[in-house]
Design brief:
Strand content: 15-25%
CATH superfamily: NADP-dependent oxidoreductase domain
Strand order of the largest sheet: 3-4-5-6-7-8-11-12
Oligomer: single chain
Distance between the termini: 42 Å
Number of helices: 13
Radius of gyration: 19 Å
Largest sheet: 8 strands, parallel, barrel
Structural class: alpha/beta
CATH architecture: Alpha-Beta Barrel
CATH class: Alpha Beta
CATH topology: TIM Barrel
């Protein structure tokens, strides 16, 4: 588990970055650029590239690594665990995050996915058929509990630093928002228990659309309501305070809705997801920070002119981590060749608040 002493020492050992590169996360400090592990084929060759890239990143000043049990059929989790052990770092310097929600395959895509889900999850009673949305997603407490156990095994870690319930808005295809909130609360209660058992330190929600769309959108979930349910879950579990700590959502030059769409009711009226999270003390980790690599080919000229960095990729990364309230921006690093360029983005200061706001004027 990442610790205060180890992460602050890690920051001191990597002092070649711009002033705001390392940012507070609980009592730790973490890099404002993190490693994402979503993209890539489920092959041994890609495993090797990811392994080498993560090792290089961890040894170069990036101490945030994000994955999910379903990424590359559980291969990404296993590679992350191997890389954390093989890198020339202490385990306590790295914030390792993973997610559960989408039913994962194991190593490769089975010839009959439906039968695999039936035999691996439904028939053994790990998940009820009615809890599955679109035949591939569940956030029921028992299922998430099972997925957390599998993630701990894949990563071979005693404690996962941050565990996300993955894309709960997927459930809205099958049930009402109120039913989704109820299920989230029940799952949060179980995650609070797993915190007390030492299996995770914090938990949160990773989304694609839920927090960055208008209230009347089919995928909308209220961040204030999710936070309220987490607090209720902590009370029910007998915790002193909620361990709901973070959200993950897409944010980049082309997908800035988390900053521009005011869909969450704050004390003084509607707020964007980023503004509400910042005022509520919730850490934000951005996904798709480079729009899955497409922004490496160039940014809008008027935006690029405001950003520091030698390459379009660096400027895109620096845009994402300039947003108010962002703790770390995740960047896919599927090969060692990408790492040096991405790490170097952190030697430039991101936009200040005024300059960031001016992008949207």
């Amino acid at each position: 588990m990442a610790t205060q002493t180890a992460t602050w020492a890690y920051r001191d050992d990597h002092d070649g970055f711009a002033r705001t590169f390392f940012r507070r996360y609980a009592d730790c400090v973490v890099s404002s650029i993190g490693v994402g592990t979503y993209l890539g084929d489920p092959t041994d060759e890609q495993d090797e590239r990811y392994h080498d890239a993560i090792v290089e990143a961890l040894e170069s000043g990036i101490n945030v690594v994000d994955t999910a049990i379903n990424y590359r059929n559980q291969r990404s989790e296993r590679v992350v665990g191997d890389a954390v052990r093989d890198a020339d770092i202490d385990r306590e310097v790295a914030l390792v995050a993973t997610k559960g929600g989408f039913v994962p395959f194991d190593g490769d895509r089975p010839a009959d996915p439906g039968r695999y889900v039936l035999e691996e999850y439904v028939e053994p009673g790990i998940v009820d058929r009615e809890d599955l949305a679109r035949g591939q997603h569940a956030i029921a407490p028992g299922f998430v509990d099972d997925q957390l156990d599998r993630s701990l095994s894949n990563l071979e870690l005693e404690t996962i630093d941050l565990y996300y319930v993955h894309n709960p808005e997927t459930q809205l295809a099958e049930r009402s928002a109120e039913a989704v909130y109820d299920q989230l609360e029940a799952t949060f209660e179980r995650l609070e228990e797993r915190v007390s058992e030492g299996d995770i330190r914090h938990y949160g929600v990773a989304t694609w659309e839920a927090f960055r769309v208008p209230e009347d959108h089919d995928s909308y979930l209220s961040l204030p309501e999710v936070v309220r349910r987490a607090r209720s879950a902590a009370d029910a579990a007998g915790a002193d305070a909620t361990h709901f700590r973070a959200i993950q959502l897409p944010f980049n030059v082309q997908m800035a809705d988390a900053f521009t769409v005011e869909a969450h009711q704050g004390p003084d009226g509607p707020q964007s997801a980023l503004e509400f999270a910042h005022e509520a003390g919730i850490d934000v980790f951005t996904s798709a920070s480079m729009l899955q690599g497409r922004l490496a080919d160039g940014l809008p000229q008027d935006v690029a002119a405001k950003l520091s960095g030698e390459t379009s990729a660096q400027r895109a990364i620096n845009f994402a981590r300039s947003a108010p309230g962002v703790t770390s921006s995740l960047v896919g690093m599927g090969s060692p060749e990408h790492v040096a360029e991405n790490v170097a983005a952190g030697t430039y200061e991101p936009l200040g608040a005024g300059a960031f706001d001016s992008v949207f004027e």
